[in-house]
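User: Hi! Is it possible to get a structure for several chains at once, not just one? Here's what I have:
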Amino acid sequence: DGGITQSPKYLFRKEGQNVTLSCEQNLNHDAMYWYRQDPGQGLRLIYYSQIVNDFQKGDIAEGYSVSREKKESFPLTVTSAQKNPTAFYLCASSTTGGSGSEQYFGPGTRLTVT
Amino acid sequence: AQSVSQHNHHVILSEAASLELGCNYSYGGTVNLFWYVQYPGQHLQLLLKYFSGDPLVKGIKGFEAEFIKSKFSFNLRKPSVQWSDTAEYFCADMVYGNNRLAFGKGNQVVVIP
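Assistant: Yes, the chains can be modeled jointly so their relative placement is included. Here is the combined structure:
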């Protein structure tokens, strides 16, 4: 089945530790995205990548880092510099065909930092 | 920056009632508008989208949305809701010049049996 996988589903970390969230897609999409979802805030874009070895900051990139070494993979690292890291993180992918290109979402990772 | 506004974050209604969720977008150029739904414990999935043509768009599960350019609106409707429509609904607009999406804050809809 084609789709997006994110692992793990739940993740717990101590404050001050970096943590990496996995996102893999087998849809052959060029573009991938990371969002953060908080209650009442909608989805806010952290980073996105439209091609391998290139990525851009989204609206709330501070305290996060990404890499895009392979087309199918776009891992997100939540660093200790992120002031409020506890959230639900969603990964998505899409074609870069322009009009009507919908994004496909993974199941999400719920990160809790204590 | 492009933005999307959704009103009435929490909506509670009874089965068989009609549902309308408002969405206003800010960009006045070429539009690519989406409604996504997130059922409890499930992936965010596409309900419907509009980028050209008939401004009345039909989506999955009996939902439809109307694009009104003069009002910068893309409201979602369903004539008769079911308990299974309990979910969070997000409106989104594709940012001009790239494939980014600007999302609204969402509507949490609860349908009471």
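The radius of gyration of chain B is 13 Å. Residues 9 and 21 of chain B are 9 Å apart (CA to CA).

User: Great, thank you!
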